[in-house]
């Protein structure tokens, strides 16, 4: 297969209203700032990727980094490893972390998309797998609501899904427990219920509050404490009945390797951005396979469906609809499962009219 040659790299920032606000113990988000990246090639192939920036200011800060990348990569092969080597060398003194790491991950995803489009294969197939049905849980909404509201919203969100995720971390532990019980009681039988603390607790608080939730039918407790406190997380994983989930904040495969070595969690769920794009995900999947640890994804359901299809210990796909308004063909859920798009590339294609409407940079 001939590797396409980079002609240019463009980025646009959009701010898309969320159908359901995301209210966590850390903040409340009502709009999704998304950085859309297009890698064009001399062969006429375009590779695409996007980043959820959390804050619009972060997206604006990434735009000049992408502009720099165009000058560095023009007329060079869109080969993921070579692109990362060039970009990492350029940013050696600044460091490949934070916003720089995000831009490199988006470039990696765009390169892989371009390779798959050029090969006329879905990304999953290019990675040696086949698109397949993956159990999906709905991660939209279900923030720190009162028990009755949470129960009603959970029932709505569960329709068509194999599971839902709720957020915890209220000031009062009893309020969290009441919300979990209300949601669990309202959900149809067989629906999985995940819970995410978003790093809300100190270790001493987590010991008490997580034990209170044992036996409440939760599939996992996600990031109860600071994400990089592997020692504390390992203690919780060893003593709790409910599995502990970590991973969205793994900054590259080496961070995940350290967490696995510490026994910090029962499950892992890397983020396609923070783990290092498709290339970083492949390394992480190999680590999870070697450790025998189930691996889910964090956000980016369009690309993650391809990545999980090629993951030996694939577990759950996290579904959010934040990018749907600017996509021509959003992810669809059928029978509680998501299957990667069976067309060339990762399946990302922008609705240009919507992009123009929501564009802020």
Structure, briefly:
The chain has 361 residues and is of the alpha/beta class. It contains 12 helices and 11 strands.
Description of the structure:
The protein is an alpha/beta fold and 361 residues long. The protein has 2 domains: 6-120 and 352-358, Enolase-like, N-terminal domain (Enolase-like, domain 1); 125-339, TIM Barrel. It contains 12 helices and 11 strands. The protein has helices spanning 56-73, 80-90, 98-118, 123-126, 147-158, 173-186, 203-213, 230-239, 253-262, 277-291, 301-309, 352-358, and strands at 6-23, 28-41, 46-52, 133-138, 163-167, 192-196, 220-222, 244-246, 267-268, 317-319, 337-339. Helix 1 packs across helix 3. The longest helix is centred in the N-terminal third of the chain and has 21 residues, at 98-118. Its cofactor is Mg(2+). Keywords: Magnesium, Metal-binding. It holds the Pfam family MR_MLE_C.
């Amino acid at each position: 297969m001939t590797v396409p040659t980079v002609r240019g790299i463009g980025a646009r920032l959009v701010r898309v209203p969320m159908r359901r606000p995301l209210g966590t113990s850390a903040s409340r988000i009502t709009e999704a700032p998304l950085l859309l990246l297009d890698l064009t090639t001399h062969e006429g192939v375009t590779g695409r990727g996007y980043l959820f920036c959390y804050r619009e200011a972060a997206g604006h800060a990434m735009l000049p980094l992408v502009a720099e990348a165009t000058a560095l990569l023009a007329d060079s092969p869109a080969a993921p490893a070579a692109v990362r080597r060039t970009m990492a060398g350029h940013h050696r003194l600044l460091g490949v972390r934070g916003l720089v790491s995000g831009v490199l991950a988006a470039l990696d995803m765009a390169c892989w998309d371009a390779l798959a489009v050029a090969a006329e294969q879905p990304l999953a197939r290019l990675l040696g797998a086949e698109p397949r049905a993956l159990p999906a849980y709905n991660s939209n909404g279900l923030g720190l609501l009162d028990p009755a509201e949470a129960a009603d919203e959970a029932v709505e969100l569960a329709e068509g899904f194999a599971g839902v995720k709720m957020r915890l971390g209220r000031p009062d532990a009893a309020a969290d427990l009441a919300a979990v019980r209300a949601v669990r009681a309202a959900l149809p039988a067989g629906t999985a219920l995940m819970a995410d603390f978003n790093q809300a607790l100190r270790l001493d608080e987590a010991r008490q509050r997580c034990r209170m939730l044992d036996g409440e039918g939760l599939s996992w407790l996600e990031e109860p404490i600071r994400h990089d406190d592997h020692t504390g997380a390992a203690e919780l994983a060893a003593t709790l009945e409910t599995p502990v989930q970590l991973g969205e904040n793994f900054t590259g495969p080496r961070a995940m390797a350290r967490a696995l070595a510490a026994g910090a969690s029962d499950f892992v769920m890397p983020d396609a951005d923070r783990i290092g794009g498709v290339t970083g995900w492949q390394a992480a999947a190999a680590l999870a396979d070697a450790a025998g640890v189930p691996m889910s994804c964090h956000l980016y359901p369009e690309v993650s469906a391809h990545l999980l299809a090629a993951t030996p210990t694939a577990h759950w796909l996290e579904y959010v609809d934040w990018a749907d308004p600017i996509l021509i063909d959003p992810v669809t859920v059928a029978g509680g499962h998501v299957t990667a798009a069976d067309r060339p590339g990762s399946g990302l294609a922008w609705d240009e009219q919507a992009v123009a409407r929501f564009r802020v940079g």
